[in-house]
Design goal:
The protein is 27% helix and 35% strand. It has 309 residues and is α/β, with parallel strands linked by helices. It has two domains: 191 residues, Flavodoxin domain (Rossmann fold); 101 residues, Avidin-like (Lipocalin, Beta Barrel), CATH 2.40.128.30. The two termini are 28 Å apart. The structure holds flavin mononucleotide.
């Protein structure tokens, strides 16, 4: 099996470079192969031409002529999986990697009818952050990074997605040295077990769902989008759309992946409505579903089904 590694760091004098080498060693020791684009070493061009802008903006599926972009398309489609290794710069990937997405994730390849990009078995993001993870979480910065990468750029382009953060690596923090060896070991294990881990982790983290069935007294519909999150056995989601102006839910997931949560939302009539729900997973036509049994706090019970988008 082959992993396409997209590596993006401007300096060899970096923790990220060491982490990359451990990851690659793991890939090889795991009996797999890799191909890599080292974006700075390649001096990968990141500015979109006006010609590409007009092609993408007008959804014109005319053939590409840009050799460097075609080479990236070829690397993606000849691999089974993709891994991105990059440091966080201003709560984003470095501009060079953002530009790689602008140019490589193009109309007719990564999106649009008859897109040529294959469905990858797995996408892993190894994201190196200077800041401790607690701070990234408390200020919503981790959620922003994950949403952009997993919810938009990777979205449904890989069967399995994993976002791995190596935090506290700032040169000002003791954790950089203290965690150095353990982080490299973790990166090695991530590489070694890259395909062995596939499909083992059940999570709703950063998955989007919509309601495809509901009882008459229910309020969510196929116009409602839920964005779920998960940390350990704690699950939560924001939802909105249709007759829901804004909703939140929080609860737990048990060992059989059943979810138990309380929900509250404001509907378009200005009513604040609350209730509780038990939700059991199933897979239909390859899509994850949750079969929900819910009850308003002061009122009727009902059932609904939400399906992954
Ligand atoms: C311009 C710049 C911006 C950065 N912005 C962030 C940031 O927003 N969040 C963060 O956690 N780390 C940030 N960092 C820290 C980098 O992620 C840093 O490179 C990281 O600690 C990895 O170490 P390394 O460069 O030795 O691989 C920034 C670093 C630079 C140079």
């Amino acid at each position: 099996m082959k992993v396409f590694i997209v590596y993006c760091h401007p300096s060899e004098d970096s923790f990220t470079k060491n982490l990359r080498d451990s990851f690659i060693k793991g890939i090889i020791d795991g009996g797999n192969e890799y191909v890599m684009s080292d974006l700075y070493a390649m001096d990968f061009k990141t500015d979109m031409t006006e010609q590409q802008y007009l092609r993408d903006a007008k959804y014109e599926n005319i053939p590409f002529t840009e050799e460097d972009v075609l080479a990236e398309h070829e690397k993606i489609n000849s691999a089974d999986a993709i891994a991105f290794i990059y440091p966080v710069f201003w709560t984003e990937a470095p501009a060079k990697l953002v530009g790689w997405f602008d140019r490589v994730w193009t109309y007719g390849f990564a999106y649009g009818d008859n897109k040529k990009m294959k469905m990858l078995d797995k996408a892993m993001l190894l994201c190196i952050a200077g800041t401790p993870i607690e701070k990234l979480e408390h200020f919503g910065l981790l959620a922003s990074m994950k949403k952009v990468m997993l919810g938009d750029r990777l979205f449904n382009r890989a069967k399995q997605k994993e976002f791995v953060v190596f935090d506290g690596t700032s040169r000002k923090l003791e954790t950089r040295e203290n965690n150095w060896d353990a982080y490299l070991e973790k990166a090695y294990e991530k590489g070694k077990n890259f395909f062995a881990d596939a499909g083992e982790t059940f999570t709703v983290d950063d998955k989007f769902f919509t309601a495809i069935e509901n009882s008459e007294s229910g309020e969510v519909s196929d116009k409602t989008v839920f964005c779920y999150h998960q940390k350990g056995n704690v699950i939560w989601a924001e939802y909105s759309g249709g007759s829901i102006v804004k909703g939140f839910l929080i609860g737990t997931m048990d060992e059989d992946h059943n979810m138990h949560f309380n929900y509250q939302h404001m509907n378009t009539d200005g009513e604040l409505r609350t209730g509780s729900c038990d939700s059991a997973p199933s897979v239909e036509n390859g899509k994850l579903r949750f079969n929900e049994q819910w009850k308003w706090t002061m009122g009727k019970e009902g059932t609904s089904v939400i399906e992954e988008i």
